[in-house]
Design a protein that fits this description.
By secondary structure, the protein is α/β, with parallel strands linked by helices. It has 4 domains: 117 residues, Response regulator (Rossmann fold), CATH 3.40.50; 120 residues, no CATH class; 113 residues, Cupredoxins -  blue copper proteins (Immunoglobulin-like), CATH 2.60.40; 94 residues, Cytochrome c-like domain (Cytochrome Bc1 Complex, Chain D, domain 2, Orthogonal Bundle). Helices cover 41% and strands 20% of the residues. It is built from 12 helices and 18 strands. The strands form 4 sheets. Strands 2-1-3-4-5-6 form a 6-stranded mixed β-sheet, sandwiched between helices. The longest helix is centred in the first third of the chain and has 35 residues.
Length: 472
């Protein structure tokens, strides 16, 4: 079918170094579309540039498969430069098919319709194919957008239902969990964005049986690349600000904070309450009152961590390296402090109970612990537990890090230097204040802290010796 000649035919410039392409396409246009006039033929980019100035065509058709024509240079000079105009890339590589500008494959029966669209393009009207393609693309994007939202909600709900975090038991935990929840939401969105696009593409755009054609050709999208760079950057900066604010909130001091000294050693915790003179192996805290933990270590680096409180702080060796950690317990109950820094063979067992109680119960506990027994054996047993002695010295004969206390008093002790000593009052006192003076055979030196001479009073040492005497 042929079209009626038009009074003002559209002017087309054909660019190809192949005569068959140039002459064949010109003959095809003259035969099928009298409304289109092939006013010039160019064999290179430079010739096309000269012809453009001389002939002023309405449309330029470029041989897509011609290696002699630099497509990138051509598009840069004719599409994106000052000479911007309509340019169409066409491939006639196969006898019965044509591929037009967007790598869209046309069968022989569809070429006639494409030529009609070409005439419309020459008249300044857009092709119907790009309009249809854009509508289809928007439809796919709309479907994917809805699926991403649904998947994000589902993934986020699933992660929250799993219970990734333990119970919130402090004011600091609320601040941290709020930020963590926002992280989970963003992670759910990014996971859904990737997975939904991937699965949708696999299902909808998979190659159909018998289809051997090339896929669509894409040159990139500057706007998308800029957005994909600036978007994540802005998100990272946002979370950096939120993280800084959360850190400031967890460390904000309160005027009536209660001070507790935490002493870590291999492999036990000791908690001292300076206001009352109480020392305990359990951390007892009043609810809804900020506590300042002043952490030190007697030997190696330890790390104070109660999962329900979220926050964590290292305890460093040396009295001058005191680290502070602020807590505001909000939930009455019993928890457990753990060491979060690998500190030796019994690191996994370095635990201590944490008890959050009402202010009235806390005051009653302080009063009870402040009372001093008249029995030196009872006092010695208390000091041994509070200062972590039983973490290394068993009272039932079990061999741990240090010699057992069971049956120790009054017996001969074989020393590492080959000599022996009697475990009397003088020997036990020396072993406490200067543990490296006489090391027991079979035990490593320098394991026991050498700070008990400063931490323990003479009466406390005497009480502990009286307690050891009773362990027959």
């Amino acid at each position: 079918m042929t079209s009626r000649p038009e009074a003002n035919p559209r002017r087309v410039l054909i660019v190809s170094s192949h005569p068959l392409f140039r002459e064949g396409l010109r003959s095809l246009l003259q035969e099928r579309r009298p409304g289109i006039e092939a006013i010039g033929l160019a064999t290179s980019t430079d010739e096309a540039l000269a012809a453009l100035d001389r002939l002023a065509p309405d449309l330029v058709i470029v041989d897509h498969d011609d290696a002699a024509v630099n497509r990138e240079e051509f598009l840069a000079r004719f599409v994106e430069g000052e000479r911007a105009m309509r340019v169409m890339l066409v491939s006639l590589k196969e006898a019965d098919r044509a591929v037009v500008y967007d790598r869209h494959t046309l069968t022989a029966s569809q070429i006639e319709d494409w030529l009609g669209g070409l005439a419309a393009t020459a008249r300044g009207a857009p092709l119907s194919a790009p309009q249809t393609s854009r509508r289809v693309e928007m439809k796919h994007f709309a479907i994917v957008g809805v699926l991403v939202i649904v998947a994000t909600v589902a993934v986020n709900a699933g992660l929250n239902a799993v219970g990734l975090m333990p119970v919130e038991a402090s004011e600091q935990a609320r601040v941290i969990d709020r930020l963590f929840s926002l992280h989970v939401t963003v992670i759910s969105f990014l996971f859904s964005l990737i997975v939904v696009f991937l699965l949708y593409s696999v299902v909808v755009f998979r190659r159909k049986p018998g289809d051997t054609s090339d896929g669509d050709h894409f040159e990139g999208h500057t706007g998308l690349e800029v957005a994909w760079t600036l978007g994540p950057l802005a998100l990272v900066m946002l979370f950096a600000g939120l993280g800084a604010q959360a850190l400031a909130d967890t460390r904000r001091p309160e005027p009536n904070a209660y001070v507790v000294k935490v002493v870590a050693s291999q492999w036990s915790w000791s908690f001292e309450y300076p206001d009352s003179g109480v020392t305990s192996t359990s951390l007892n805290l009043p609810v809804n009152r900020q506590v300042v933990l002043q952490l030190t270590s007697q030997d190696v680096i330890h790390s104070f961590w109660v999962p329900e409180f979220r926050v964590k702080q290292d305890a460093l060796p040396g009295d001058k390296l005191v680290k502070e950690l602020r807590l505001t317990p909000t939930l009455i109950g019993q928890y457990k402090v753990r060491c979060a820094e690998l500190c030796g063979r019994q690191h996994a067992y370095m635990e201590a109970p944490v008890v959050v109680m009402s202010q009235a119960d806390f005051d009653a506990w302080i009063t009870k612990e402040s009372a001093i027994s008249n029995d030196p054996v009872a006092r010695g047993k208390k000091w041994a537990a509070q200062y972590g002695c039983t973490a290394c010295h068993s009272i039932d004969g079990t061999k741990i890090v240090g010699p057992t206390w069971k049956g120790l008093y009054g017996h001969e002790v074989a020393l590492a230097d080959g000599t022996t000593a009697t475990a009397d009052d003088a020997y036990l006192r020396e072993s406490i204040v200067d543990p490296t003076a006489r090391v027991v055979q079979g035990f490593a030196p320098n394991i026991m802290p050498q700070t008990f001479k400063d931490r323990l009073q003479d009466q406390q040492i005497s009480d502990m010796i009286e307690y050891i005497k009773t362990l027959k």
